Amino acid sequence: MTVLQMLKPHAGLRVLITGGASGIGLVIARAFVETGARVHVCDASAEAIDALAQSQANAGSARISATLADVSDRDAVERVFADVQKELGGLDVLVNNAGIAGPTGGIEELDVKEWETTVDVNLNAQFYFARRAVPLLRYAQHGGTIIALSSVAGRLGYAFRTPYSATKWAVVGLTRSLAIELGPSNIRVNAIQPGIVKGPRIERVIAARAAQLNLSYEEMEKQYLEKISLRRMTTPEEVAATALFLCSPAGSGISGQAISVCGNVEVL
After folding, report:
1. Which of 17, 158, 180, 212 has the most CB atoms within 10 Å of its CB?
2. Among the options 128, 139, 158, 164, which is catalytic?
3. Residue 177 host element (H or E)
4. By the 8 A CB rule, do 199 and 234 touch?
5. Element (H or E) spanning 39, and its range?
6. What 3-state DSSP class applies to 267?
7. Which long-range contacts (CB under 8 A, 24 or more apart) does 31-34 make?
8. What is the pLDDT along the chain (268 residues), one digit of tens a residue?
């Protein structure tokens, strides 16, 4: 196998992506499909799943199957894995992508329920999916792979976004620990830490932060970009490309790492 050939994931990988019917998750799902993978996604949005199904129908393709599920609901997680067994017959890759932005505010202002919801979706769900995926990943032909979506907020402090940042730091701890635990079973575990990714989600985050600091959206966005060495946002495709690399033979020696795809965010 040449180095160039090593950069492409093995064809026919069976991939599960949480929060995969829209946003970064959907871009990752479609990238895997382009490599010949069979992909199953779950998502909490019925509208997103319907839109995915319609887009595949219009394209005459149905390579991505889906389950409507709240990732923080353990019963829903069981339904997802029942569908994975039915649709894929096993699993080679788990992409723990689902997450929420959580509340914006000073620590004394935060609602306890919003804190708990952020922890449930961003951290507990990653545990629920990993524990169910590992027994399947042990049988992956080329070794199993878990990719956890953390964030640049999982390597930097993030004032007024403590629930989000705390969970994303915890995801890195979970990743590094599982890499040690699962390495002898030929299962690699890594985290991707996106920075400020183009799309509706970051627009909502910037708007909320601007309101918190009594600034215009434009001024807040400018401040965000000034903290990035490349002075631009990351694209979802750059995140997806990193996921593909980690699942390729070229990435077969990488485990226990938290890889920032952020243009080098210097501070939050």
Report:
1. 17
2. 164
3. helix 162-182
4. no
5. strand 38-43
6. coil
7. 31/237, 31/240, 31/241, 31/243, 31/244, 32/93, 32/243, 32/244, 32/247, 33/63, 33/64
8. 899 999 999 999 999 999 999 999 999 999 999 999 999 999 999 999 999 999 999 888 768 999 999 999 999 999 999 999 999 999 999 999 999 999 989 999 999 999 999 999 999 999 999 999 999 999 999 999 999 999 999 999 999 999 999 999 999 999 999 999 999 999 999 999 999 999 887 898 799 889 989 999 999 999 999 999 999 999 999 999 999 999 999 999 999 999 999 999 999 8
Cα(102)–Cα(168) distance, rounded to whole angstroms? 11
Residue among 214, 208, 201, 148 at smallest CA distance from 177 = 148
Contact 158, 193 (CB under 8 A): no
Residue 83, CA distances (Å) to 4, 66, 76, 88, 129 in order:
35, 8, 11, 8, 13
Q: Helices then strands (H, E): number in the chain?
A: 10, 7
Q: Could you say which architecture CATH assigns to the domain 9-195+235-261?
A: 3-Layer(aba) Sandwich (3.40)
User: How far is 258 from 154, CA to CA, in rounded Å?
Assistant: 9
Token duo for residue 180: 């040690």
- How many CB atoms neighbour CB 1 within 10 A? 8
- Going from N- to C-terminal start, the domains of the chain cover 9-195+235-261
